[in-house]
Known about the structure:
By secondary structure, this protein is of the alpha+beta class. The protein has helices at residues 2-28, 48-52, 144-149, 151-171, 175-187, 189-196; strands at residues 32-38, 55-60, 63-68, 74-80, 83-90, 94-95, 99-103, 110-114, 126-127, 131-132.
Amino acid sequence: QSTWGRILQLAMLSRLVALFVLCSVVSSSHPFHFGATIDPSNVKGFTQEMMNRIHVQLVKGETEYTAFVKPDGSFSFDQLESGSYMLHIHSLDFVFAQFRVDVQKRDGTVRLFPGSTNGNLKEPFFFKPLGPTQYFHKREGFSLNFLLANPMMLMMGFSMLMMFIMPKMMENIDPEEMKKVRAEMNQSPLNKLMSQS
């Protein structure tokens, strides 16, 4: 009985040691950090109010992290887990490119990929606007291609063409052939139905 008791004590002790080691490993793996800066130097007339209307999102599956941009253009994300994220920069005034952010599991190194390309950007990361946001499209002027691509206009053009061509074609038909055509038209069932109605 004492031998079995010691074996059980050793088994419990080994489980407690394994649990302690696991907890220490989990606690030592600190969450990672990612930071960057909005650089509006390529935009004329950029104001601080425009900077205040920018916020940034990191999306990984259904998990979203949001950061607001500081007055100097910097923003940061803390408590990040390792993995791949999509970076979205939202602005009412300007359009920004999308980026893929990879946080390495080993050391928390951040790699940044513009869109779906393979070339990664180096730290420090700066994001410049692609251009102003356009909420309205310019109205297109008159275009001949638009008329030619419209089926209704094509049907109208064909009808007008037939109005001019048909009389000339009728003049060239032999009178006897014309009589035969009219006789066949009068004997057609469609013509009989029309006359009965």
